[in-house]
Write a structure and sequence with these properties.
By secondary structure, the chain is of the alpha+beta class. 37% of the residues lie in helices and 19% in strands. The chain has a 7-stranded mixed β-sheet with strand order 5-6-7-2-14-13-8, with helices on one face. It has a 6-stranded mixed β-sheet with strand order 9-16-15-12-10-11, sandwiched between helices. Strands 1-4-3 form a 3-stranded antiparallel β-sheet, with no helix packed on it. This is O-acyltransferase WSD1.
Length: 500
């Protein structure tokens, strides 16, 4: 686990087999995309997909040729234009050799499920030590036709984060799939209702309510920008057992996943009058509190159940970095139509800002307190322009001081926090990837200066938890996943008791 990733400081177009370029106009990389390709912030997304059947490699290749590589980002090289390494990068269209992107490793098919699970984990960890090959479009699909404990075969889809934000890339992937129950139909994503304003409120009341909301947003934004500024200069999270040290972005990552019931999450959501995201954040905080209490108990060489009040320090500053899309991501229908017509009007983009969300690390007697507390903090963050201000501040730094200084600032902010957290909405039903029914979808990423990245992904009637960890910092990620699963059960039981 001591290997570290090294970043190439210059990429020559002539490398590799993708030499034949189209005459399409070069498109400059967006500011965020340039930052995500810098040596200190070289971030890749990994989506692990389990299949209920083994994969037909030829069918997958034909499917990718007819869909994914028709998107400009998946058929373009990221190359330098001029002498500046990062300030003058463009996307240049190229011919895609599908065999350079679909990788089939040799596998011992006689392994039992426990051995195959370990093989998949080690294979993905090895991928996190390897840089993307910039001599070809920045994506790969690894086909592991091996039976694991929860699938009959596994795909590991690796794509550089500079190609697009997580939601856009997930929508693009879903646009390549179809409902298992209807091979001609695109997947269905949940629709979120906008809160309606009651007609019973008088005009003066609505005006006063709007004015108060504006005042709150301005005040909250002011406070949030001050906190980001303080984080840039001196404000760092507590050095807990899950806080990564300097250079953690370069270490190998172990990526594990766990599946829980989406129905249980919705049950809690309804009972506490919250959102799915509120529940997921509350469950995450409850699980982290449980896990950290165990780690502190182990450090004090005590049984974590012996001390009634637990072993958590009284004051822990633990924050999560949340990436937020500044502009709406294209829908799967738009992306599917674009791939059918090979248009280039729809861009994936990387126009994202960030917010710093304080996590509550404590042991509540009432498990529902985690959800209520999480809801209060998320509702407060919704009344702030923090992510928009963070995005445009990054743009300003980039134009004024260049990529190196902008990346150094963002790296300093993220490394001062403990983890990254996200929740991505998936299809409401089972889907198939070019005729292969998927058992689960578990996205994650690596390359951030943090030892822990947490993703939640809904799929059919399930919610998939993915953890990307530095095993030198978190040597027992399955214990952490189990603590989160146990926390959800405790919260659900509290709801059932409340109803009885």
């Amino acid at each position: 686990m001591a290997n570290k990733r090294l970043h190439p400081m210059s990429i020559q177009i002539e490398r590799g087999s993708n030499k034949e370029l189209t005459k399409a106009d070069d498109e400059p990389l967006s500011p965020v995309a340039r930052m995500l390709q810098a040596p200190k912030l070289d971030v890749c997304i990994i989506a692990v997909m389990g299949s209920k059947t083994t994969f037909d490699v030829d069918v997958l290749k034909r499917g990718l040729e007819n869909t994914l590589i028709k998107h400009p980002r998946f058929s373009s090289l990221s190359v330098m234009k001029g002498h500046d390494v990062f300030d003058k990068k463009v996307w240049k269209r190229t011919k895609v050799n599908i065999d350079n992107h679909v990788i089939i490793p040799q596998i011992d098919l006689n392994m039992d499920s426990s051995s195959s699970d370990k093989f998949v984990d080690e294979y993905i960890t090895h991928l996190t030590t390897r840089l993307m090959d910039f001599s070809k479009p920045l994506w790969e699909m690894h086909i592991l036709n091996i039976k694991t404990s929860d699938a009959n075969a596994v795909i590991v889809f690796r794509v550089h984060h500079s190609i697009g934000d997580g939601v856009s890339l997930m929508n693009l992937l879903l646009a390549c799939t179809r409902k298992s129950s209807d091979p001609q139909a695109l997947p269905t994503l949940p629709q979120f209702k906008q809160p309606s304003i009651s007609n019973s409120k008088t005009a003066i009341w609505r005006l006063l309510s709007t004015m108060w909301t504006v005042i709150l947003m301005l005040l909250n934004t002011f406070v949030d920008i001050l906190l980001i500024s303080a984080t840039t200069i001196f404000l760092k999270d507590t050095n807990t057992p899950i806080k990564g040290a300097a250079g953690v972005e370069l270490t190998p990552k172990l990526i594990v996943h766990r599946t829980v019931s989406l129905a249980d999450i919705k049950l809690v959501k309804t009972a506490v009058n919250s959102t799915v995201n509120d529940v997921l954040l509350g469950v995450t905080e409850a699980g982290l509190s449980r896990y950290l209490n165990g780690r502190y108990a182990a450090e004090s060489k005590q049984d974590e159940k012996e001390h009634k009040l637990g072993y958590l320090p009284k004051s822990i500053r633990l924050r999560a970095t949340l990436m937020v899309n500044i502009r709406p991501s294209p829908g799967i229908e738009e992306l599917a139509e674009m791939m059918r017509n090979e248009g280039s009007a729809i861009k994936l983009g990387t126009k994202v800002g960030h917010i710093l969300l304080p996590f509550e690390v404590t042991l509540h007697e009432n498990p529902l307190s985690y959800i209520r507390s999480a809801k209060a903090r998320i509702d407060r963050k919704k009344l702030s322009f923090e992510s928009i201000c963070a995005f445009y501040t990054g743009q300003y730094l980039l134009k004024l001081f260049g990529v190196k200084q902008a990346v150094s600032t963002l790296h300093g902010i993220v490394s001062s926090t403990t983890l990254s957290f996200s929740n991505v909405v998936g299809p409401k039903e089972e889907i198939s990837l070019f005729g292969h029914p998927l058992a689960y979808i578990a996205p994650s990423l690596y390359g951030l200066p943090q030892a822990l990245v947490i993703h939640w992904q809904s799929y059919d009637d399930k919610m998939v938890l993915s953890l990307s960890v530095d095993p030198n910092v978190i040597p027992d990620p399955y214990k952490l996943a189990s603590d989160m699963e146990s926390s959800l059960k405790l919260i659900k039981n509290a709801v059932m008791e409340m109803k009885s």
